[in-house]
Amino acid sequence: MILATEMVFQPQVLFTIVMAALFGLFVGAVPGLTATMATALLVPVTFFMEPVPAIGAIVTCSAMAIFAGDIPGTLLRIPGTPASAAYTDEAYAMTRKGQGEVALGANLLFSALGGLFGTAVLIVAAPSLAEVALKFSSFEYFWLACLGLTCATVVGTGSPIKGLVSLLLGLFVATVGLNNPAGVPRFTFGSVDLMGGIDFIPAMIGLFAVSEIFRYVLGMSPDTSGAQTRVGNLFTGWGRMMKQYWRQSIRGNIVGTLIGALPGAGADIASWVSYAVSKRLSRTPEKFGTGHVEGIIESTSSNNAALGGAWVPALVFGIPGDSITAIVIGVLYLKGMNPGPTIFINNPQDIYAVFLIFILANIFMVPAGWAAIKSARLLMRVPRNVLMPTILLFCVVGSFAINNSVFGITIMLVFGLLGFVMEENGFPIAPTILGIVLGPMLEENFVTSMIKSDGSFAGFFERPISGTLGVLTLALWVVPLALFLWRKFSANRVSPHATRG
Amino acid sequence: MKRRTFIGTCATALTVALSAGGALLGMAAAPALAAYPERPITLIVPWGAGGGTDATARIVGSLLEKTLGQPVNVVNRTGGSGVVGHQAIASSAADGYTLGIATVEIGMMHWQGLTQLTHTDYTPLALMNEDPAGLQVAQDSKFASAKDFLEAVRAKPGSMKASGTGQGGIWHLALAGMLDEADIPPQSVPWVPSQGAAPGLQDLVAGGVQVVPCSLPEARSLIDAGRVKSLAIMAKERNPLFPNIPTLKEQTGIDWTMAAWRGIVGPKGLPQDVSDRLIKALKEVYDSSDFKDFMNQRGFGMIYASGDQFSNFMSESNESLGTVMKAVGIAKQ
Do residues B305 and B313 lie in contact, with contact meaning Cβ atoms separated by under 8 Å? Predict the structure, then answer.
C-alpha cells in the first residue's frame, strides 16, 4: 500500500492524471464524442508510458468524460455521452427554470460520490461480485432487457400509447442493418452504409439537439437566455440535497455498480434504469420531467458508479464490463498487468495504485468539474442566434466523428426532423432512444437463448437467476394490470356509497 | 484556474477538431507525390475500438508514424460484420494516404453474398499477424481431449452448442470445418451467434454454451484464471506461449487448420513507388522491438508476408474458406 502511494504521488503521474482529466472533460462535453472514444484516443499515447500513469490516464479520462456529458445535456439539451441521455430532458427543464446551477451542481457532486462508491465496491468485493456477473448468460440478459423496456413506460411523459409508439419506433430503428444474430441484412435497400445499422449516437444527437435547433429556427422555442445566464454558486444546496436525497444517491450507486459489473450492460443502461426506478419509487413522481432534481441525482450517481463496476469482471476475469474496459484489458496486457484472479496476488502494489487513482480522479472531478461548468457558463452569454449555428456545427462534427462518415450526418438530420415532428405532436422521444439502446440486446439474447434451448421457452425459467428475473419481470407487467382490472371490477360490483362504509 | 482551464479546453478542442478534420482534408487535397508521404495518413479499421484488430492497427499506426515521419490517424469504420470498413478502404483514393487493416473476413463476406468485395480489390502491403483457432471448453467440462469431444458429438449430435463470433464468422467456420473433416455433419454442433469471443467465452463459463473455438489470445485471461481450458489448437505447430496445448493433428490425426489473420492493405492501384515505400516502412515496423514486445505481450501470433506473397496468401485463404463455407452450407448458392 505504501509502495502504491509512492507510485501514484509522483509528479509525472499526477501531471498525466491532470492532463487526462482535461482531455476527458473536453471529449465528454462535445456531443458525439463518447467516453469510449476518449479512451481509444488515449491508447496510442499509453503505449509509451509506465503502467501506472497509463492506466491512471484512462481511469481519469473516462470518469471525467461521463460527468462532462452532463454539461451540454443540461445547458443545451445535447447529451455529451449516451450515459447522460436518460436525464437530459429533466436537466434541461431545470435550466429553463433558471436552476441550471442546481442541476449541474447535483451532477458534479453525485457523479463524484457515485464514482467513489463504485471504486469502494471494486476494492472490497471485486472477486465475489465477478463470480456473480459471470453467471449471467443470454437467458438472464434477455430478462434484463425486458426490465429495461419496462422503463419506457416510466420515463416517457404523457400518454402511455404515445410512449409505446415511440418505443416501437426505437425498436424498429434497432433492426436496421446486418448486426443481428443471423447476420442477415434488414431494411438496407442495398446500401452499404445501412448495412452497418443506424448508429445510436448521431440518432441521439438528432433527436435531442437538432430537433431543438429546428424549433428555434421556426421561432417556436421560448427565449430562455435570461434565465440561463446565471450559473451562480454551484455548491448551493449541496448539503440540503445530500440530506434530502441520500437514499436516491445510494440506490443509484448500488444499481449502477451492479449493472456496470454485468459484462452485457454498462453506464448507459444503468442510467436509464436508475432514472425509472427513481420515478417509480418517488413520493412525487408527478414532478419528474418538469425539472426536478431527484431523478437526476439517482441516475447521475448510477452512471458514474457503473464505471467502477465495469472494472470488476475486467480485472478478475479479463471480460470487459463495457466498451471502455474492453480497451483497458488490452492496455493491461501490454503493461504486463495480466487480468485474472492473480492480479491481486502478483504485484499487488500495481492494482492498489490503480485503486488510488480511481479515488484521486473522483476527488479531482470536483474542482475540475467546477472549472468546466464555470467556463461552459460563458456559452450562455452568447446570443442565441450565434449559439444555435455553433451547436449545429458541433452536432455535425460529433455525428461525423463517430464513424468518420458523412452518413452519420444524414442520420442526425433525419432523426432531428423525426424528433421535431414527434415532440410537436406530443410523442416523447426518450422511449425511442431506449428502444434503440435495448433493441439489439433484446433480440440477440432472445434468439441465442432459443438456439441454446432448442426452441423451448422453458429455458428462460430453468436457470435460477434467469427464473427469478423472469418471474420478477412478468410480475411487474401483470400485477399493475391485474390491480387495475380488480379495482375496476370491484368498483362496478360495489356501489360508490358502500365503499365509504 | 477558470481562465486557464478554458484555454486548455480550447487547445484540446483544436487538436481534436484538427485530427477529426484530418480525414476530410485527406480526401480533398490533390495527390501530389513529390516525396511520399507529405501529409497525414489515415488507417481504417473495420472493427470496433478495443478489439484485437483495433489494438494491432493502433500499434502499427504509431510505429508507422515514427518511420514515415507523418501522423497516422487510426479510424474505426465498424458495422455490417466488417463489410462497411472493408468497403471504405477499397473505395478510398489510391494515393497512399488512406490505408486499412484487412482481416480474414475479406475472404468470407463475398461467399455469403454480403458484398462484391474480394481481396483483389486491394493493393496488398504487409501481412502482420495470424492467430489459429483453439478448442476451448469450461474448466469443469468432462472432456480431457479433442478426441473425447469429437466422440461425444458423434454419439449425441445437437447436445452441445458453440459460440464465439457471429453466424458464419471465422470461428464458426473453424469448428464446422473440423467436424466436416472428421466426417461428422457440421450441424451436429449448433452455432450460437455472439458479438465476439469475449461474450462467447463468458457464456461458456456461465454454462450457456459448451465449446468456444476462438483463438488462444482471446481466451487467455480465462485460461489463466482457471475457468476455461483449451483442448487443442487448429494449427500446424504448438503456440510457444501455450506449449502444453497440443495441435488438433497430434491428438486426433485430423489435418485441419484455421486461423484469423490481419494485414495492412491499400485500395487497388496504389502507385508502385508508394507501395514500395510503405512495404519498406511496414517491414521496419514488423522488425522493431516495440512491435515484437506488443505482439508477445498480447499473445498475438506473428507472421510476415508482403506484396505478391501476401497476395497469394489471401488468395489461398479465400479458396479454402470458400470450400468450407460451401461444405457447411453457409455460402450463398
Answer: yes
- Interatomic CA distance for residues B27 and B244, integer angstroms: 50
Comparing CB atoms, the residue among B84, B161, B222 nearest residue A452 is B161
Domain that holds residue B220: 134-252
Given this model, what pLDDT does residue A33 score? Answer: 75
A150 touches chain B (CB under 8 A): no
pLDDT band at A31 (very low <50, low <70, confident <90, very high): confident
Please state, in angstroms and rounded to a whole number, the distance separating the CA atoms of residues B301 and B239.
8
User: Number of Cβ pairs closer than 8 Å across A and B?
Assistant: 200
pLDDT at B170 exceeding the cut of 80: yes
Q: Classify residue B18: in a domain, yes or no.
A: no
Among residues A329, A267, A341, the alpha carbon closest in space to that of A300 is found at A267
Residues B53 and B120 in one domain: yes
- Taking CA–CA distances from A30, the nearest residue in chain B reads B13
Element spanning B307, H or E? helix B307-327
In a domain, residue A468? The reply is no
Please check whether residue A15 lies inside any domain of the structure: yes
Is residue A464 in a domain? Answer: no
Chain B contact for A320 (CB, 8 A cutoff)? yes
Q: Does A347 touch chain B (CB under 8 A)?
A: no
Separation CA B229–CA B231 (nearest Å)? 6
Closest CA to A122 of A28, A50, A59, A70: A59
Nearest residue, CB atoms, B193 vs list A39, A181, A372: A181
List the single residue in B9, B206, B298 with the smallest CB-CB distance to A333.
Answer: B298
**Structural domain ending residue among the three candidates B190, B225, B252:** B252
* A173, A203 Cβ separation under 8 angstroms: yes
The H-assigned helical ranges of B29-163 are 52-68, 83-90, 146-155
Residue B297 within any structural domain of the chain: yes
pLDDT tens per residue across span B61-85? 989 999 999 989 888 887 777 888 9
pTM of the model: 0.78
A195 is a domain residue: yes
Residue A231 has pLDDT above 90, yes or no: no
Considering the domain boundaries, does residue B23 fall inside one?
no
Q: Mean pLDDT for chain A?
A: 84
Query: Does residue A342 belong to the interface with chain B, where contact is any CB pair within 8 Å?
Result: yes
Whole-number Å distance between alpha carbons of A422 and A90? 18
Q: Copy the grid coordinates of residue B29.
A: 487535397
And the C-alpha cell for B217?
489470445
The shortest C-alpha distance from A310 to chain B (Å) reads 14
Q: What is the 3-state secondary structure (H, E, C) of B59-89?
A: HHHHHHHHHHCCCEEEEECCCHHHHHHHHHH
Query: Which domain-ending residue is among B232, B252, B272?
Result: B252
Inter-CA distances, A413 with A165, A190, A418, Å = 21, 21, 9
CA angle A439, A261, A71 (to 5 degrees): 70
- B268/B293 same-domain check: yes
Q: Are residue B127 and residue B268 in the same domain, yes or no?
A: yes
- Rounded CA separation A392/A398 (Å): 10
Do B162 and B211 fall within a single domain? yes
Q: Smallest Cα–Cα separation from B275: which of B267, B285, B284, B286?
A: B267
Nearest CA in chain A to B117: A192
The answer to whether A465 contacts chain B (CB < 8 Å) is no
Query: Which domain covers residue A152, as residue numbers?
Result: 2-452
- Mutate: best of A34, A317, A338, A460, partner B, most B CBs <10 A: A317
Question: Number of folded domains in chain B?
Answer: 2
Element (H, E) at A299: helix A293-317
B109 domain residue, yes or no:
yes
> Averaged over A445-449, what is the pLDDT?
91
Q: What percent of chain B has pLDDT over 90?
A: 62
DSSP states of B217-236: HHHHHHHHTTSEEEEEESSS
Per CB-CB distance under 8 Å, the chain B contacts of A196 are: 78-80, 83-84
